[in-house]
């Protein structure tokens, strides 16, 4: 109990003293190096696995643990399905990834691991049974229906390096 009579730590809160920070776990389709900075509108092609906020050490521990516990043998080879429109008023063109048991297990383990460290998951309605893996179309850069892509690693991406939300930086990747 804290001095105010409240529990010292509420259930589900991160035990890491560092403030929460925005992260995303992704599987890159395009080769992308650790530390390779890119603009928020210029992502390499990727499949988003989970977007969340938590302390940096907790983010690292959650992603590393989830990859180890997923049982998904990386690399995963997934098939690209039909195109769809996501986002506000359908303004984001994407290529869906056909259902893949290994990819779903990986997503579920990430979700569980982030929750276990007290992380806040963005758009929880798009997780679990609502998870629709996809690759966003980036102008001329895209994947095509029927294409098989290899997802070799899971990367932890900092969504605001040094507090700057205009940039993204992959911090670490797990095979």
TrEMBL record:
<dbReference type="Pfam" id="PF13563">
    <property type="entry name" value="2_5_RNA_ligase2"/>
</dbReference>
<dbReference type="InterPro" id="IPR009097">
    <property type="entry name" value="Cyclic_Pdiesterase"/>
</dbReference>
<protein>
    <recommendedName>
        <fullName>2'-5' RNA ligase</fullName>
    </recommendedName>
</protein>
């Amino acid at each position: 109990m804290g001095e105010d009579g409240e529990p010292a730590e509420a259930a589900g809160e991160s035990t890491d003293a560092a403030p929460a920070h925005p992260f995303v776990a992704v599987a890159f389709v395009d080769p992308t190096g650790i530390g390779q900075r890119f603009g928020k509108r210029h992502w390499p092609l990727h499949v988003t696995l989970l977007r969340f906020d938590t302390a940096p050490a907790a983010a690292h521990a959650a992603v590393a643990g989830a990859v180890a516990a997923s049982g998904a043998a990386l690399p995963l080879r997934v098939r690209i399905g039909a195109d769809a429109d996501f986002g506000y008023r359908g303004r984001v063109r994407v290529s869906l990834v056909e259902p893949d048991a290994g990819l779903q297990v990986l997503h579920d383990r990430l979700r569980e691991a982030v929750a276990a460290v007290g992380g806040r998951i963005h758009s929880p309605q798009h997780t679990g049974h609502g998870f629709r893996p996809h690759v966003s179309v980036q102008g001329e850069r895209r994947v095509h229906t029927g294409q098989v892509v290899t997802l070799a690693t899971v990367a932890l991406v900092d969504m605001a390096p040094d507090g700057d939300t205009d940039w993204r930086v992959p911090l670490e990747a797990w095979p």
